[in-house]
């Protein structure tokens, strides 16, 4: 039975070219900070995302490394994550996040609650 499960997962990954849909992706959202000054804000965002759906918490990766933001965005884009959130000083001041969807689609800056609604819809649509 293990062999058939492995084949199924292999076919699924091959079918989606590694870009699994949001409901199936091992990590659904990556939260990135620009500088160390936003680390606490990013932790708050990650915690809020994890608690957004009590029955099925969002799978969130928090990247607080001291690297260039373009490097971190590229690295997470190569992992084919469904959503990447970037938080800088402007976003922290307004209580929002800059949102990028898979495929380098920039969705702009939006409040965290609005992003949670977007993710919930993406997961519910199973697309």
Structure description:
With about 130 residues, this protein is α/β, with parallel strands linked by helices. It has a single domain (about 20-125), classed as Rossmann fold (3-Layer(aba) Sandwich). It has helices at about 1-15, 40-50, 70-80, 90-95, 110-125, and strands spanning about 30-35, 60-65, 85, 95-100, 105-110. The longest helix is centred in the first third of the chain and has 14 residues, at about 1-15. The radius of gyration is 15 Å and the shape is globular. About 25% of the residues are buried. The mean pLDDT is about 90.
Key attributes of the depicted protein:
alpha/beta, five-stranded mixed beta sheet, Rossmann fold, single chain, 5 strands, 5 helices, 127 residues
Question: From the helix content, strand content and strand pairing, which structural class follows?
Answer: alpha/beta
- Using only C-alpha atoms, the radius of gyration works out to 15 Å
The CATH homologous superfamily is named Anticodon-binding domain
Number of helices: 5
| Helix percent band | 40-55%
CATH topology: Rossmann fold
Indicate the proportion of strand residues: 15-25%
Shape: globular
Reading off the top of the CATH hierarchy, the class is best stated as Alpha Beta
Task: Please give the structural blueprint.
Blueprint lengths: L1 H14 L13 E5 L5 H12 L9 E4 L5 H10 L4 E5 L1 H6 L1 E6 L3 E7 H14 L2
Parallel strand pairs: 1-2, 1-3
Antiparallel strand pairs: 3-4, 4-5
In short:
This protein is 44% helix and 21% strand. The protein is of the alpha/beta class.
């Amino acid at each position: 039975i293990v062999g058939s499960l492995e084949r199924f997962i292999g076919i699924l990954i091959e079918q989606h070219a590694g870009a699994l849909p949001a409901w199936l992706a091992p990590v659904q959202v990556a939260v990135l900070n620009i500088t160390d000054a936003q680390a606490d804000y990013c932790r708050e965002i990650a915690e809020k995302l994890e608690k957004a759906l009590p029955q099925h918490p969002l799978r969130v990766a928090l990247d607080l490394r001291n690297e260039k933001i373009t490097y971190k965005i590229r690295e997470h884009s190569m992992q084919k994550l469904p959503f990447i959130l970037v938080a800088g000083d402007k976003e922290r001041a307004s209580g929002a996040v800059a949102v990028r969807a898979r495929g380098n689609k920039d969705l702009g800056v939006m409040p965290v609650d609005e992003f949670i609604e977007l993710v919930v819809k993406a997961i519910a649509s199973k697309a």
